[in-house]
From TrEMBL, chain A:
GO terms for cellular component: Lsm1-7-Pat1 complex; P-body; ribonucleoprotein complex. Keywords: Cytoplasm, mRNA processing, mRNA splicing, Phosphoprotein, Ribonucleoprotein, RNA-binding. It comes from Eleginops maclovinus. It comes from the Eukaryota. Belongs to the snRNP Sm proteins family. GO terms for molecular function: mRNA binding. PANTHER family: LSM1, U6 SNRNA-ASSOCIATED SM-LIKE PROTEIN LSM1. Its main location: cytoplasm. This is U6 snRNA-associated Sm-like protein LSm1. Interacts with SLBP; interaction with SLBP occurs when histone mRNA is being rapidly degraded during the S phase. LSm subunits form a heteromer with a donut shape.
TrEMBL record, chain B:
Residues 99-108, 198-212, 294-303 have a biased composition (Low complexity). It comes from the Eukaryota. Residues 549-693 form the mRNA decay factor PAT1 domain. This is Protein PAT1 homolog 1. One of its GO terms (cellular component) is nuclear speck. Its main location: cytoplasm. Pfam families: PAT1 (PF09770). One of its GO terms (biological process) is deadenylation-dependent decapping of nuclear-transcribed mRNA. The keyword Hydrolase does not apply. Signal peptide: none annotated. It is found in: Cytoplasm, P-body; Nucleus speckle; Nucleus, PML body. GO terms for molecular function: RNA binding.
Amino acid sequence: MNYVPGTASLIDDIDKKHLVLLRDGRTLIGYLRSIDQFANLVFHQTVERIHVGKKFGDIPRGIFIVRGENVVLLGEIDVDKPCDTVLQQVSIEEILEEQRLQQQSKQETEKVKMLALKDRGLSIPKADNLDEY
Amino acid sequence: MFRFQSLDEDCTLEEEDDGLIEEEDEIDQFNDDTFGAGAIDDDWQEEHKRLAGLDDGSGLGAGLGGGGGMGGESDLGGAFDSSSSHHHSSAGQLPLPPSLKFSLSSSGLPPPDVEDRAGEGGLAESLARLILEADPAIAGVGAAERPAPLPSSSGSSLSILQGLENPMVLPQPTSIPHLNQLHQHPHHPQHQLPPGPSSGLSPGPPSSSMLSYQQQQHLLRRGTGPMAQMNSHSIWENSMGFGPLSMTPGLITHMEDSPLMSIIKEVGLPKRPPQGRSDEGRDLSERVPPPRSSSPVIGSPPVRAVPIGTPPKQPMSHALNHQIHHPTAVHVRAPIQHRYPPPFPERLSPNTLLNLANSPLCRGPFPPGVGSVLSQIQRAQLLNSQVAGFPRGGPAPPLLPGGGFRPFYGGPPPPLGHRMGPPPPHCPPNHTPTIRHNTTHLHPQHRRMLTQRMQNRGVDRGRPGGDRRSRDPYSNLMSQKEKEWVTKIQMMQLQSTDPYLDDYYYQNYYEKMEKRQERERDSSKKEHTTKLITPQVAKVEHTYRPVQFAGSLGKLTVSSVNNPRKMIDAVVTSRTDDEEKREKQVWNKRRQILYTVEKMYSLLLEVQDFEKRFVQAPEEDREALLEQHKSRTLQLCNALREKEWDDRVSDEQCVMIMSVRKGKRLISRLLPFLPSPQAAAVVMAISRNLPALAKKDKQDQVLCWLVEPVAAVIQSLSSPALTDLLQELQGNEGQLASVLHNKFGVTLLYLILSEGERMQSSDSNCQLMDDNRWTELVFSVTRELLSVAPSLLSPPLFTPPNLLSLFSRYVDRQRLELLQDKLQISSLSR
């Protein structure tokens, strides 16, 4: 805003806490330290937050450099605002376990579906799995 | 004496003499005033006495003599020998060496009160004071000096100043004799530089104060040539470091500073530009190369070794200073697009933009004291310190070179500071006044909105955010420079050759807003009617011409994004219409044939499958199937017909079908299913057109597929039909020959003959012999067989065994044997 009036720029977001959602579905929270013209981001004190149902867990990751093309959305976190959320924070092990279970159930349903389709002689080509969002 | 010279010190006096005479006329009158009738004689005499007296005391007087405008000796220390020097030199122009300037300046120029005193007495006194301060040696002497009347006062002051040329060097007695020598040229042009290798004095640029206007102008025009030192011994030689013309103005500017100001006023020199500017200009103009020695700020990029996209490493303060503070940089304006077409492809590097951005911006937020010396970074830091929490004011640059914002507006530039954001006359006191963003490219409305928004936000969010950020130890990892650099790139991306294409909605929205405003208010306010033109980059047509070196083999291997290497020479070949039509026709026909073949094939397949299906099908369906079968067969037959109403098998159609490999196969499979008359007709057609078919078959060689079905057909033929067939086969002249060349033809022939023979042998009352046709035909066949060259005779697929008996009927023994040999027919069948 200051630098390029009339347009949007990440310059003003520097040194603020952000939440970024990546194309592979990961959610990172950290302080945005540096950017460049491709919107590559440098995050400091990054935490990866995994959400499963109503629970979430934070995994500290340190410094992250995100390539700009992999960003789905990015938003500033207001640290002052009180955080009233129904989500419940759990430990890392627990959340990872939950995630694993979730993945497993997903795969199973997928498998069943494929089988049913195959019986009918249909086949749905496997979509590009890289972008889950 | 101030003829322009080269700066080498070895030029002799003789050269000077020649050139100076012409100038005499121009400056003469002033000289006259100073030294001629206008001058008062008494003065110099008195002066001389005084100074002579002083000379005895301090030994400086003699030194003055030489200094009398003649570029006297370096020995001249006597500041008070002005009269003598005057007299001797008869030159109106007395050089003031640069050292004098320094000495004056070093002595701590007296405050303007010196200048205030315009009185002659005051002048001399002030000068004297200066001198005293400068050189304690002559402190005692200074008091003795008395001011002289005006014309000579200038002389006296000059001489005083001259005396200061060499404050450290005491005058020598030899100076006076030298002066005397000088006087021997009384009629020398007064502007002539004094001859004499002894003159070690570097004249320096003439004291501007002493010169009349014209003289000064001449001097300026001639540059600092005459200042060149002739005597290499002079200690003033190198002090000046005479450079190009531009040096002179600076120096002269400085010259007139302080103590001489009053003198200048008296003499009536043109006023110089105000002090402040000259200060700045002087400081930097010495360091900055003259206006056009380097590429201008506007238009061309600074030469960078690193490519455009690399982030900045070090502050480019020097370059920035040069570009920003060069006085001409900002004033060069429209028509920007024409005068300075960007030499490199249509875009400005972020570094250029950075420089350009700062040139207008640097003026704004800083108090005058900060001024010119700060670099980008320093200024930024200053700002930062001023306003905690806000990064430095927007450097968003104009996207066209230079400060050329005016061309962006069709109408008069809006009165709201077109370079900076609109001045905040109404802004709240706690607004950060120093931050100015470059919003020129935006619509005035837009800009106003933005400033308002900023003002509001500035109040609210400034403090707390700033606090926290200051406590964060990792903050500001991204330096100001880097932020700006990224912003530059982003701005570069906004460059547009066609804003209506690239930013349609923005343009339209603001246009609508404008119209709306016009409707609401009256158009008295001119700013609303200003048409916004977003920064555009001139559309430059780039034709890519691959770089080639004459005489080299091949092309360059190095290529980049901007100059790709030509890999393929794609040449457009256009064929004439006729050719194209013909080709198309050919293709169309072939396609049609293929299409027919396919259709027939599908029918055929169904027919062929009939048996199988019939067996498999349940009882009730069999009839239906039968019906279907019949209809299919009918269709097939019809397909062979050329026209709907024609019952006969079309020759053309058959031939057409058979021209295609698949068609031949089709026919061979089809024949068994055709009803006999039609099958016969087909075979007839084949034999009739055998040469043509044979020719077409050269590539495929699949005619032989037809042998079996044809054989079957033949066997079902009646004798007349057979005869006909044979006749057909023989056809026109020479057809038989070509038939014999072809394997299939030979085979067919044999088949026919063998069938005939079989008929004859088996059936006693066969009608084959009823007419002579058969016999004749056989005869001709035999004749042909005998005559044809053995090499050309192609071996058949198989040789029916009864041929021998056939031939034995018609030919005599001799021929029979010949035939036998040729055809290798033996009683044994093969």
